[in-house]
Amino acid sequence: MRSQFTVTDENGNLRYTAEGEFWTFGHKLHVYDRYHVKTGFIKQVVWSWKSRYDVYVDDIYMAQIVREFTWFKPYYTIHGPGWQLTGNVLAHEFEVTENGSVLLNVHKKWMTWGDTYEIEINDVIDERLAVAMVLAIDCVAASQAAAAAAA
Known about the structure:
The chain has 151 residues and is of the alpha+beta class. It has one helix at residues 127-150, and strands at 4-8, 14-20, 28-33, 38-45, 52-57, 60-68, 75-79, 84-88, 93-98, 101-109, 116-121.
């Protein structure tokens, strides 16, 4: 699983970095703002049949991302703030909604160096929470891809 991420704005300015911990039981990711102040934390729940990640902003538990068991298409739920995740997470083409209103959209950008994703965040959601949620969703998808590759 990837252990370092950078998040930039539309002008290429650094907004956030995320760094994974090595030698831990379960995957852990710390999110920092451009001044290297910790704003979020993502932690894998290790004793679970399903792939689960807890999301914290400013050390406050905000949500849990869970990959549900399905036969055909991966399905993910967000426990906590009452949000729904729809779209294709593995292709990085999805959105998070609340009561039918889109909170954030994620799209993979093509023809770029490395994996690059565009995140559109609605003004009603805290940007720190949105970034942590997208990183947590990516962690769940990466865990599933790694498990599928090992099988």
